Amino acid sequence: MNKYLLSIKLILILCLSLQAQTSDIQIKVLTEAENEPLLGATVYFEALEKGAVTDFDGIATFTEIPDGQHQIIISFLGFEAFETTIQIPSNTALVFKLKEGGNQLDAVVLQSSRSTRTVRKIPTRIEFIGAEELGEKAIMNPTNISMVLRESTGIQMQQTSLSSGSTNIRIQGLDGRYTQLLRDGFPLYGGFSSGLSILQIPPLDLQQFEIIKGSSSTLYGGGAIAGLVNMVSKTPDEEPALDIMLTQTQALGSTANVFYSKRNEKFGVSLYGSGHYQKGYDPEDDGFSNLPKTTSISFNPKLFYYPSEKTTLWFGLNGTYDDRIGGDITKIESGEDGIHQYTEENNSKRLSSQLVYQTQLDTVSSLEFKNSVSFFDRNLTVPDFNFDGKQTNTFTEISYNTASENTDWIVGANLYTSNFDENDNAPLQRDQKDVTFGAFANNIYDLSDNWILETGLRADYNTDFGFFPLPRISLLYKNDSGFSSRIGGGLGYKIPDIFTEEAEYINFENVLAIDKSTIDAERSYGVNFDVNYQTRLSDEIGFSINQLFYVTAINDGLLLNSTDNGLFQFENAPDEIFSKGAETNIKFTYKDFRWFLNYALIDTKLNYLPGNPQKPLTAKHNAGSVLMYESEKWRIGYETFYTGKQFLSNRTETTDFVTMGLLVMRNFKLGSVFVNFENFTDRRQSRFSPLVLPPHDNPVFPEIYAPTDGFIFSVGLIIKPFGNEDHD
User: Fold this and answer.
1) What is the spatial distance between Cα 621 and Cα 639, in angstroms, rounded to a whole number?
2) Cis-peptide into 89, omega within 30 deg
3) Secretion signal: which residues (predicted)?
4) Quick check: 620 and 644 in contact, CB under 8 A?
5) Are strands 407-422 and 385-403 parallel, antiparallel or unpaired?
6) Pairing of the two strands 179-183 and 227-233
7) The model's pTM
8) Where are the alpha helices (DSSP H) in 262-353?
9) Which of 445-452's residues contact partners 24+ apart within 8 Å by CB, and which partners?
10) pLDDT one-digit tens code per residue, 401-414
């Protein structure tokens, strides 16, 4: 009997000892589509009520997990939650893949935040335009990115020249020079390129757009007073990609875009080329072009090197040749003949380089080095005047990122130089050199599960205009019911140069150089506040709304005033430019349908003028509606946009107008075909007021407040030789 009791005791002791055995384990989480580590995913043991978050390598580490079977749940915003049973200890590596699904916007990591956080956890308000919407806009306008920006709430694309088509971006009613354009975090196309910059960025090799409205100078330096637009390029994947896009318009515009990318274990490459030809187009038959005769060629090759899983080095070149001539159609097509002698010709060449080195120092820290050199050569010719010059810009930056469970840090320093050199034969020499040193630090801190605080400070020093301290602060509240709200503000500045919209409007003729001894840099302050709510009205109907309120003020604004001797000189405004307003964005989803509604109130006052008038060429009220149907086979979009009344510089009030567009695309296994009816109601300024005033040999061009080209019909073909999903 004692033997049996002893045996039972030994068995019980053995079972208890086996049950008490524990293991330290690692669980790795990857994305299913890209097979890349997923930072920030949650791995949760249900029975143990124990969880951990994956690090930069996608690994969640656990200690003292009891041996045996366990039910785990792996989840991440924007991905489908994954539930499975694992055995501890395991004979194989514990690696799991998450599939994208749900609200994918939350899963997007935005580069312009300089953080690895998702949209939902960033206090700074960032608007995101993904690859799908970019593809739609590329179909509507394959030559440049103006369509992407024009149809974003609160953004106006202001055309400054009928003859060249030069166009500036205005965010919340502020001139284009107050918006910083970035590509992959590099400053892009500033200064001399002016209104041509938007026209020389094709969209096909871009993966996403990130738009920050309001002062963003803390992270990106001077110029981001109204906001910034960061364009993120496509990167190569192990699966090869080849997109060929051919487009033809009834206005005799032809465009070809080609993009190819591929990578292996150590190397990757992306190649992009674009060609565009536009015949001079005169829909009114008034003898002057509404679209200039244009020949444009762009190329953008990039080489990627991956020495290890944690390090990437890439180098890219961007080259553009652009020749556009507009004005008298007879002279463009047949040469000068009597009264047919007015044309405006812009010939420009651009070459820029980008070098990026990124390395993961450990699971929570990374280092990045960037350098770019940009060269721009432009020759602007109108009768009896020529403006010819070259501009060279350089940008160098080093930054360090680190993160812990509750906080993210980014610190860095950069050097920006700009050198504009006008042709030595010019009667007015407007050469200008600027050198700016900067250092910055930014912190995002989780105060709790619901409250997140972001603070930052930049200190810039310009060798001519002095020191600029630029603090910023943002606070985010979010909960699990779909509600969130952000409030933030900061300071900004802009180094003055001659390349303003007013100077461009008169082709820089008789414009004096910046007098650095009498002109101060422009300075700004701004505050944004928004609320967001997202829910499902039923199992099939989704709903979201975003309401934004903003205020931005600019002191020492740069004005171009006439002198007694017929010249123009720059001066600082005696009072501020004050812009305030609101933006509303509403989205409904139902099965394959999406409906977007937006409204923008833009109230920009020039307080330095008597009566504090509204800024010219700025509609106070704007609204839009976009209805999309998307299935595997079809993509159909119908757009309606309302632009309210505006004031010209002479205080004349313009008419309001509505434009409409329709896109139809059919997808096949090896590509797509599409037709696009842009502005099919043919709203254009010539229907309301003349675009050109006599005399014919020396015409006067009124300010542009409405579309000038009218209805544009285009057909196109997208070829994907490597194929897509089968849509037959």
Assistant:
1) 17
2) yes
3) 1-20
4) yes
5) antiparallel
6) parallel
7) 0.83
8) 329-334
9) 445/406, 445/407, 446/121, 446/405, 446/406, 446/407, 450/477, 450/478, 450/479, 451/475, 451/476, 451/477, 452/121, 452/122, 452/123, 452/476, 452/478
10) 998 878 999 999 99
